[in-house]
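Hey, quick one: can you model this chain's 3D structure?
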Amino acid sequence: MKTKIFLISLLLGFTCYTFAQEAKVYESQAPGYKTPFKRNNAGDNWFIHIGAGAQTIFGDNDAEANFADRITVIPTISLGKWFSPYWGVRLKAQGGEVHGFQDKAAYMQHDKYYNVHVDAMWNLANYWGVYSTTKSFNFTPYLGLGLAHRFQLDDKVAPSKDYIFSENKQYTRYSNTISINPGIQFGFRLSERVNLDFDLGAAIVPDYFDRYVHRAQNEAIGSATGGLTFKLGKTTFEAVEPMDFGLINELNGKINSLRAENDLLSKRPVSCPECPQVAPAVNEINYVPNVVFFRLNSSKIDANQQISVYNTANFMKETGEKIKVIGYADKNTGTSKYNLELSKKRATIVAKELTTKYNIPTEKIVVEWKGSDQQPYPQNNWNRVVIMSAQ
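Sure thing. Here's the predicted structure for all 391 residues.
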């Protein structure tokens, strides 16, 4: 009983810690800060796993039996959801037949059972590393709480002094029990929607679950399985870029300075006979490059970035100038090859927005992409950008 209480406490502590870690990433950008992600929709990031493998029960007398006689087949099926790249929950069902032994392995019993449990899962590969939609390996410990049921036997059981209850009279009482289910899952990405996953786990049940009570308080059904995981709905997570309050304050300061300067200029007299006359420049173009910033690992134009595309389109219509559209990616995320393709997608989507939404001719737009080999800004996050400038 003490062991069971300890394991249940461990499960609750694990779950609370996981939620705390998820909340912590939104609080600050101190050392160890983890990237926060947008809350996914109800239908996103679900998965179904189907697999099978081998199992054995670790009971009082089982160690004296031939190991090959102890191994049986275990089928598994599970349905789950990842709430972030770091943690998720699944409902898993497993069962089959386990071979228990008594009287120094002279008798083998065939106990059929099933075990259904809810697991809290923690993806350490994403938590300790950098989350990537194309990561090839994942390492996920889990801890679950469930219900195990042993079916009533049809065959006769050999007599034993440890067989302390009647199968018929106390079947219901001793055939249903709470199970504690720790384990580790590790797997490999086969495609965007399919993983090959392996699972090493255990179902910890009371000593009487195999119908014999000897010395131990608990027994365990150990298993090693493998199978395919199929991802449903949206399969990725979108990072939330934290606000750079230093940059915001700096920009606000510049805006206030320009407003003050504009106020001073507006108070100057309109006529100035003593001022030298300067002829206006012909076809003068006063243009500061426009930029479109992107979120981490994204080529989607956010709504608050559309103003830059709109201003660029107006400039092109008013001046007839050609525009160069150059895409970039930050160097601290992804490989050079991946970032080159990402910067191409970003530049292409901005050019497409100019042509389809604002009817800018394609021959007026030159599209280039530099990946992460060139960084136009010293601030890493700013380099997830497309820069539009007049040629």
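One thing worth noting: Residues 14-31, 158-162, 164-168, 278-286 have pLDDT under 50 and may be disordered.
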